[in-house]
Amino acid sequence: MMRRFRHSTSSENASTIDISPLIDVVFLLLIFFIVTTVFVKETGVEVSKPRAATSQDLDRQAILIAVTAESRVWQGGREIGQDGVRAVVAALLEETPDTPVVIRADAAAPTEATVKVIDSAKLAGAASVSLATEK
Question: Any stretches that span the bilayer, and where are they (predicted)?
Answer without folding.
Answer: 21-40
